[in-house]
């Protein structure tokens, strides 16, 4: 998608602080971090949201989840605990419509979130 910010990051047309490239997934730091670790994990292929990704049923959702855990290990938050969030739809706060998992950790995380 030529007008998609995260497709441009995947294509390296927009700079990002990339922390992991794992097959069909790419992970980079959120520009406005909400925790000491705040990494966005995206499939390189464009899918609008988590529901569309799940419906694609080609193993990509599995790859994305595994990449999230690999990021947590690499960031040193796998032992202390971390959160994976998919904001899905505008009502849930999704603002970039290329599916992305937020991997958050490095501080205490309350539940339920705001
Ligand atoms: P959403 O609200 O869609 O779940 O999350 C979008 C996330 O993308 C936000 O946390 C926002 O800070 C992040 N973001 C927006 N623009 C950019 C950018 O240009 N680069 C990076 N690395 N993150 C961005
Ligand atoms: Zn995209």
UniProtKB/TrEMBL annotation:
<dbReference type="InterPro" id="IPR036265">
    <property type="entry name" value="HIT-like_sf"/>
</dbReference>
<dbReference type="GO" id="GO:0003824">
    <property type="term" value="F:catalytic activity"/>
</dbReference>
<protein>
    <submittedName>
        <fullName>HIT domain-containing protein</fullName>
    </submittedName>
</protein>
<dbReference type="InterPro" id="IPR001310">
    <property type="entry name" value="Histidine_triad_HIT"/>
</dbReference>
<feature type="short sequence motif" description="Histidine triad motif">
    <location>
        <begin position="98"/>
        <end position="102"/>
    </location>
</feature>
<feature type="active site" description="Tele-AMP-histidine intermediate">
    <location>
        <position position="100"/>
    </location>
</feature>
<feature type="domain" description="HIT">
    <location>
        <begin position="5"/>
        <end position="114"/>
    </location>
</feature>
<dbReference type="Pfam" id="PF01230">
    <property type="entry name" value="HIT"/>
</dbReference>
<dbReference type="InterPro" id="IPR011146">
    <property type="entry name" value="HIT-like"/>
</dbReference>
């Amino acid at each position: 998608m030529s007008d998609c910010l995260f497709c441009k990051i995947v294509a390296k047309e927009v700079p990002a602080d990339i922390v992991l490239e794992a097959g069909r997934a790419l992970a980079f730091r959120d520009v406005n971090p909400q925790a000491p670790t705040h990494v966005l994990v995206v499939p390189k292929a464009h899918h609008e949201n988590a529901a569309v990704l799940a419906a694609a049923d080609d193993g990509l959702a599995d790859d994305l989840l595994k990449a999230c855990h690999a990021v947590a290990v690499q960031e040193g938050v796998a032992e202390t605990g971390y959160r994976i969030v998919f904001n899905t739809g505008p009502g849930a706060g999704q603002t970039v419509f290329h599916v992305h998992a937020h991997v958050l950790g490095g501080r205490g995380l309350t539940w339920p979130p705001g």
